[in-house]
Amino acid sequence: MTAPLAVLGGGSIGVAFALQFALAGRAVRVYEPSPDRRTAIPGELRARLAELAAHGLLDDDLDAVAGRVVLTSAVAEAVAGAAIAQECAPERAEIKRALFAEAAAADPDAILASSSSAIVPSAITGEEPWADRLIVAHPGNPPYLIPVIELVPGPRTAAGVIDRAAAVYEAVGLRPVRLTREIEGFVFNRLQGAVLREAYCLLRDGIASVDDIDAVMREGLGRRWSFMGPFETSDLNVRGGLEAHAARMAPAYERMGAERGQHDPWTPELVAEAHRQRREILPLEEWEDRVLWRDRELMRRKRLLG
């Protein structure tokens, strides 16, 4: 029998996780201490399911999906026998630590996973004995529409915990990204933060308006980034891949970074490693076919978006 999944906290992200887990056919137990929130959650779940159905994204019966989610006011009841305890509490380490201490006592085997957006695992665990099974599992928001989930180990996370967690998240339709070690903001918010920092600088310097900066992302970069990341985008922009792209563009990017006080040049060794990893994914002899694929994907989006 497939183990249930626990969600600790019934706010917006907790409801979204419960929905994703239930859509995958899993029994879900949601711990929520507030009686008012426990009363509101079923209606919110059904409203989100109705939106999915209206957009042709619900393959299951709405009542059946909603019926997989059980609400409780007790952490122990939510966590007992669960494969993962997905914490969705406010972004304060002390709140998360107290919640995990209770969850850890309720089940000695459940993976303890925090939805933290920036707090690293070691800041949550301190010296607690359950640090060996705690990770950050940071989702896109909402996870039932943005499938990427970052899995971040702490310095005391036991070997195999990330693998166990990844298997569960893959089974419920999410796309795990495994970080090798903890770092504030993880990958998602560091990439997002880099774009936001430059956007604010461009606004501050009077280069462009808020709406025009958003337009460059919305109508330009965003169309490509909706199906490709920055490495693949650059790899396909210049014949010869990342090495050729870096030879052409690295000096300009280095100057732009230095202008903002961030002098992180792309060293030959770094470019060579990025190029090597891309060639494992896409041999150069398949480069033209992949460029055609990119263009066709952009055509599909143009047809949809205008």
UniProtKB/TrEMBL annotation:
3-hydroxyacyl-CoA dehydrogenase NAD binding domain residues: 5-181
Domain 3-hydroxyacyl-CoA dehydrogenase C-terminal: 185-278
Alphabetically ordered keywords of this record: Oxidoreductase
Protein origin, superkingdom: Bacteria
GO molecular function: NAD+ binding; oxidoreductase activity, acting on the CH-OH group of donors, NAD or NADP as acceptor
InterPro entries on file: 3-OHacyl-CoA_DH, 3-OHacyl-CoA_DH_CS, 3-OHacyl-CoA_DH_NAD-bd, 3HC_DH_C, 6-PGluconate_DH-like_C_sf, 6PGD_dom2, NAD(P)-bd_dom_sf
Signal sequence, start to end: none
Ranges annotated as spanning the membrane: none
Pathway(s) per entry: Lipid metabolism; butanoate metabolism
Claim: Oxidoreductase is one of the keywords in the record: yes
PANTHER family per the UniProt record, alphabetical: 3-HYDROXYACYL-COA DEHYDROGENASE FAMILY PROTEIN, 3-HYDROXYBUTYRYL-COA DEHYDROGENASE
Protein family: Belongs to the 3-hydroxyacyl-CoA dehydrogenase family.
Protein known as: 3-hydroxyacyl-CoA dehydrogenase
Organism, as annotated: Microbacterium sediminis
Lineage of the organism: Bacteria, Bacillati, Actinomycetota, Actinomycetes, Micrococcales
